[in-house]
Design brief:
The protein is built from 14 helices and 20 strands. It is α/β, with parallel strands linked by helices.
Length: 408
């Protein structure tokens, strides 16, 4: 009978002294970054059958629990800003959730953290731990391990009912998420080399990459077991061209003349890899009324989104990525904004006129306009998510027939 071997295996493992032998993969839960255009290109629609036979469907979008994420791009394109805003969006939903931030580059000030999170000084003290000195590969690993041990040894205190169900109708219970930001991979060094005034050649750099790779290999299982979302910032560097033939790209969606520091292993271990490209500059006196840029986010690697999928977000240099203007940009790119100048309108709702510069004010002051905006955005976002395609699995009848004929 099908399944007999698996059932017998589970019965044997249920009596095993090593709890790791009893564990099986748990269903994923995803957390919103606060930016729906990104969340939905990196999401799925889950369908489950509840114990009472009822069919339940829901959108699971955003960043997967306990995942290793890497944001790559050139300096100034908003990688760290997006990481901080994402962390804030995730942890503020849960009483015990916390942000840990190893800022090796020292690129974020207390004022910037307060601006991006919108938190009071008291809230920042309670939910945001940052350090910017004495960070090494060894104590970075120790910090992750300490968080994991603390959460697992106090499981009841830190766990919660997600309110969701897996595909078999079982309740999904998770530890409340912790977000750990490492800024940046390029600056992470083993303690042996971190105090050197001058790095002693390529041998030291290679040794550092090996030590870092070993640390990340050991960290991966900790992240999932304790629901720690590790967000790493990394830079895209100019690759050194050797010989007369072009280099082969280090990763998909990297150009031949681009490379990532920190070694290849970290890229391979990453669950979610996002590329940031700031392409269009914005001026405060024009268009959307902000000084900043339009940043394209492209999925290079993901467990829940299609590689190559992109979305565009509005990066306000002063206040960070703007959720409302980013949704407006989505509507505009999907041809849902009509009219011109001060007489723009959404979809077919020409009774509600607005201009780009007064969009945010209109959203805040006009409930009917706000609902139109939300409804149009929802329709587009749902069309962007990856559907459950199990019913559309490939048919292997022809392949089986060929093999049967050859062997027959």
């Amino acid at each position: 009978m099908a399944g007999t071997l698996l059932e017998k295996y589970r019965q044997i493992m249920s009596k095993h002294k090593d709890i790791r032998m009893k564990q099986e993969a748990e269903p994923d839960v995803q957390y919103s970054t606060g930016f729906p255009p990104f969340d939905f290109i990196n999401g799925t629609k889950v369908t489950s059958t509840l114990p009472n036979g009822q069919i339940m469907s829901y959108y699971s979008v955003g960043i997967v629990d306990g995942s290793l994420c890497m944001f790559i791009g050139r300096s100034g394109c908003g990688k760290t800003t997006f990481a901080v805003q994402t962390a804030k969006s995730i942890v503020e939903q849960f009483p015990t959730s916390t942000i840990f931030h190893d800022d090796i580059e020292g690129g974020i000030t207390d004022l910037r953290r307060a601006t991006l999170t919108g938190w009071s000084n008291e809230m920042l003290r309670e939910k945001y731990r940052i350090r910017d000195t004495g960070i090494t590969a060894e104590n970075f690993y120790e910090s992750i391990a300490a968080i994991k041990d603390l959460k697992l040894s106090n499981y009841e205190e830190f766990s919660y009912d997600t309110g969701l169900y897996d595909m078999n109708g079982n309740k999904i219970i998770k530890l409340e998420p912790t977000v750990y930001i490492l800024d940046s991979v390029a600056m992470l060094m083993p303690e042996k080399y971190s105090d050197e005034e001058e790095l002693s050649g390529q041998m030291s750099a290679t040794a550092a990459a090996k030590t870092n790779a070993m640390s990340f290999r050991r960290i991966i299982p900790m992240l999932k077991s304790a629901n720690i979302i590790l967000i790493m910032i990394n830079h895209i560097n100019q690759a050194i061209q050797l010989g007369i033939f072009p280099n082969k790209s280090q990763l998909s969606y990297l150009k031949p003349d681009e490379s990532l520091p920190g070694g290849r292993t970290i890229s391979y271990l990453t669950n979610l890899l996002i590329r940031f490209d700031d392409n269009s500059k914005l001026k405060e006196e024009e268009g959307l009324g902000v000084a900043g840029s339009v940043v394209d986010l492209q999925i290079v690697k993901s467990r829940t989104g299609r590689a190559g999928s992109t979305c565009s977000l509005v990066f306000d240099f002063e206040r960070g990525f703007d959720p409302e203007l980013s949704l407006y940009l989505l509507l505009k790119n999907k041809k849902r904004i009509n009219g011109a100048g001060a007489y723009l309108y959404i979809g077919e709702h020409d009774e509600k006129k607005f201009s780009q510069k007064n969009l945010k004010q209109k959203l805040a002051e006009d409930p009917e306009f706000r609902q139109i905006f939300i409804s149009e955005a929802i329709e587009i976002l749902k069309s962007m998510v990856t559907e459950d395609v199990r019913s559309e699995a490939h048919n292997y009848d022809i392949s089986n027939s060929i093999m049967a004929s050859i062997n027959g």
